[in-house]
């Protein structure tokens, strides 16, 4: 471990330990090398020296590599490198396609961070295609022995020597420049400046403290909020991670982009919201999120009902509702705190009648759910519907009146049976009746056309 500490003192951040070769060799020192490097505070990754020239061999070597990695308890965040460089196999297969097979099999077995190492000769001889593998997935070797100016910067990393030594440390070492921080980080790549905003749209994502996957928070703690993306990371596991901050400049953590929806503007993303509202007071609505185009909320508008169809949780902390009139004309954006919610919706004129058929419903005084009466008090009575309300809770409520035009209250339509005339709904009796008087009409209909 002491030798690894010396290595680290020279600015080294990471080591890549050989684990396996073909399907016949395991590095017997791998366990101690990994343990000592980790104890010294170095990030540890692993490589496999490849000999495969068929798809079956590529899968077998991947499985051999992963089996040893798991026995050594190498974390699944470690970079698993396909070292394909031996001149004895160069040109004997489609090395690009087989390298993809090798990497995909490793991912299937639980290690999502894969990489490919090769020499410049393999690229210039077209034995392998780094573009097809993705330059950010390829670690290239070429030896000027001293890094006189960084070269091969289009690749993930450049190995510039195999013959470096450290005072007080036995042996010689390969040395590389890590351009995209896949090795010296945990596969996240370099920080890419990003000035967009992200609204948290999923509640089942972890927000990470670091790329060793230490948990910092849950996305549900920030659900619906709009945060600023200062940097993004294109991780080797195929995901993009945002480094997000709140409007006080406090760092929230790293979140997978899949848990968010991004926008260029600080208003964040549109979020569905359906409710009816009234303006609480006169004032201003905004016509854009530059806040330089406005419209007036007049005294007359205070008496009207409006509809919200969506909302924005702005980075500034204010929730802005998008307001329309009942004819579909857009009014503008306004702070939702300046609106009162009217979930019952508008009063819709209704000239029908309804018979109360259930005894276990409340009749409401208002839509704050203050009880006025019980439906049992009006059971089997027929009442006049003057208005109905299609509430956002999914129910329809009738505003009902008796035959003296006294208002009875609001009742859920499910407690009644609707009729088109004052006769009310048909109620099954099952009884028999004996005619006892001869001076009554028997009616054809309830427009009082006599039948007998």
Notable characteristics:
452 residues, 31 strands, mainly beta
Describe the protein's architecture and organization.
This protein has 452 residues and is mainly beta. It contains six helices and 31 strands. The protein has helices spanning 2-9, 30-39, 55-71, 95-108, 120-124, 130-133, and strands spanning 14-21, 25-26, 43-49, 80-83, 114-119, 138-141, 157-164, 173-178, 192-193, 197-200, 206-208, 215-218, 226-234, 240-245, 251-256, 260-263, 271-279, 283-286, 294-297, 306-313, 319-325, 330-335, 339-341, 348-349, 353-356, 362-364, 371-374, 382-390, 396-401, 407-412, 416-419. The strands form five sheets. The chain has an eight-stranded mixed sheet. Strands 9, 10, 11, 12, 13, 14, 15 and 16 form an eight-stranded antiparallel sheet that branches. It is elongated, with a radius of gyration of 37 Å. The protein starts with a helix and ends in a 33-residue tail after the last strand.
Concise overview:
This protein is mainly beta and 452 residues long. Helices cover 13% and strands 36% of the residues. An 8-stranded mixed beta sheet has the order 2-1-3-4-5-6-7-8. Strands 9, 10, 11, 12, 13, 14, 15 and 16 form an 8-stranded antiparallel beta sheet that branches. Strands 24, 25, 26, 27, 28, 29, 30 and 31 form an 8-stranded antiparallel beta sheet that branches.
């Amino acid at each position: 471990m002491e030798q690894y500490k010396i290595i680290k003192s020279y600015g080294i951040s990471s080591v890549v330990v050989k684990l396996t070769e073909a399907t016949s060799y395991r590095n017997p020192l791998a366990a101690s090398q990994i343990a000592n490097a980790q104890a010294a505070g170095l990030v540890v990754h692993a490589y496999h020296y490849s000999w495969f020239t068929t798809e079956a061999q590529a899968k077998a070597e991947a499985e051999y590599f992963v089996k040893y990695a798991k026995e050594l308890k190498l974390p699944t965040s470690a970079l698993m490198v396909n070292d394909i460089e031996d001149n004895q196999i160069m040109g004997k297969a489609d090395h690009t396609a087989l390298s993809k097979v090798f990497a995909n099999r490793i991912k299937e077995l639980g290690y999502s961070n894969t990489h490919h190492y090769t020499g410049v000769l393999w690229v210039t001889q077209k034995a392998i295609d780094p573009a097809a593998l993705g330059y950010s997935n390829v670690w290239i070797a070429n030896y000027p022995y001293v890094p006189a100016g960084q070269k091969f910067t289009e690749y993930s990393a450049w190995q510039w020597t195999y013959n470096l030594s450290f005072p007080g440390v036995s042996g010689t070492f390969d040395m590389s420049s890590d351009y995209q921080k896949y090795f010296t980080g945990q596969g996240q790549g370099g920080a890419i400046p990003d000035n967009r905003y992200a609204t948290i749209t999923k509640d089942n994502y972890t927000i990470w403290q670091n790329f060793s996957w230490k948990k910092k928070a849950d996305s549900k703690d920030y659900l619906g909020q709009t945060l600023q993306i200062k940097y993004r990371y294109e991780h080797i596991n195929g995901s993009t991670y945002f480094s997000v901050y709140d409007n006080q400049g406090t760092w929230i953590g790293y979140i997978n982009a899949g848990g968010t929806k991004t926008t260029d503007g600080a208003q964040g993303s549109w979020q569905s919201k359906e409710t009816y509202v009234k303006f609480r007071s006169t004032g201003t609505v905004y016509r854009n999120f530059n806040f330089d185009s406005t419209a007036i909320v007049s005294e007359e508008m205070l008496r009207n009902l409006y509809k919200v169809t969506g909302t924005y949780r702005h980075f500034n902390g204010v929730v802005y509702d998008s307001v329309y009139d009942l004819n579909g004309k857009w009014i503008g954006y306004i702070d939702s705190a300046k609106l009162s919610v009217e979930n019952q919706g508008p009063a819709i004129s209704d000239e029908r009648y309804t018979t109360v058929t259930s005894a276990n419903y409340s009749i409401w005084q208002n839509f704050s759910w203050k009880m006025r009466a019980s439906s049992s008090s009006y059971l089997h009575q027929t009442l006049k519907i003057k208005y109905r309300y299609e509430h956002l809770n999914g129910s329809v409520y009738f505003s009902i009146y008796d035959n003296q035009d006294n208002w009875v209250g609001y009742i859920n339509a499910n407690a009644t049976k609707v009729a088109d005339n004052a006769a009310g709904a048909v109620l099954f009796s099952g009884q028999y009746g004996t005619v006892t008087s001869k001076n009554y009409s028997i009616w054809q209909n309830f427009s009082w056309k006599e039948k007998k």
